[in-house]
């Protein structure tokens, strides 16, 4: 018998949040990761860090104005005893100090607190003192959609406003690397547009076709790509069948690559508010993964963001060890 929160889709019952619970459970089985938490000066941001620490996912270093962080903890009954503090007078200084700590090898993850994303990423992308790599930074929503069987990645809906072809290559490679390295297998990647045919009238269809050819030539690796695909025939097998689209990806996508930030933001919020999906978030392409949470995130979503980042950091640690051997 189904509970009120269970969702029946065809002959398959999907339990809400089950995908997140699996990720969190797996993350608890790997060593906790030292995480530099930037300006956790609100109840949500501080509680998110401490609850992830209590769950054994992270070892936080709290960077920001110590007096303010302590006051927040006291006002909301949050136990921060035993955690390391690094004092910084304000959010901008906290972002700079956090990035410095990562550059010094003090932390393997960054976690956004109660400061603007742009402020944190400004310090991360600083050419002289930041955490830039040859990859473009991009954001991935890791979505637990109750009516969809797969864990669904949506990228990029938070950083790159109008990505060009090279940007999209990095966006896709970042998402594929995350998907494979947290142990989800080889992803099926749908490059979305308004239609599933290539036409010069819709530039995103041309980009999709070029990106699929780039994957064929080894410029994008680790996933199975198809596009352009409209949203319906990317995630619904019957819609793909009606359109006569035959591919490994159509109707069964696991990574959705949107044409621009506006489309991605609307898609992610539609899934969140209409399909009751959870949306964990992580930024990739820097020297370390960045846990990017929102004030509106639930505790479960914050934990899932941490879990994904921890699994990714653990995988990167093993890859680095093998490379050094």
Question: What does this protein look like?
Answer:
This protein has about 325 residues and is an alpha/beta fold. The protein folds into two domains: about 30-130 and about 285-325, Rossmann fold; about 135-280, 3-Layer(aba) Sandwich (Isopropylmalate Dehydrogenase), CATH 3.40.718. About 40% of the residues lie in helices and about 20% in strands. The chain contains eleven helices and 13 strands. It has an eleven-stranded mixed sheet, with helices on both faces. The chain has a two-stranded antiparallel sheet with strand order 1-2. A hairpin with a 2-residue loop joins strand 1 (about 5-10) and strand 2. Helix 1 (about 20-25) packs across helix 11 (about 300-325), helix 2 (about 45-55) packs across helix 11 (about 300-325) and helix 4 (about 90-105) packs parallel to helix 5 (about 115-125). The N and C termini lie far apart (about 55 Å). The model is unreliable at about 1-15 (pLDDT under 50).
What is the CATH superfamily classification of the largest domain?
Isopropylmalate Dehydrogenase
Give the low-confidence spans. Answer: 1-13
Write down the overall geometry: globular
Which CATH architecture of the largest domain? 3-Layer(aba) Sandwich
Biggest sheet, spatial arrangement of strands: 5-4-3-6-13-12-7-8-11-9-10
Q: What fraction of residues sit in β-strands? A: 15-25%
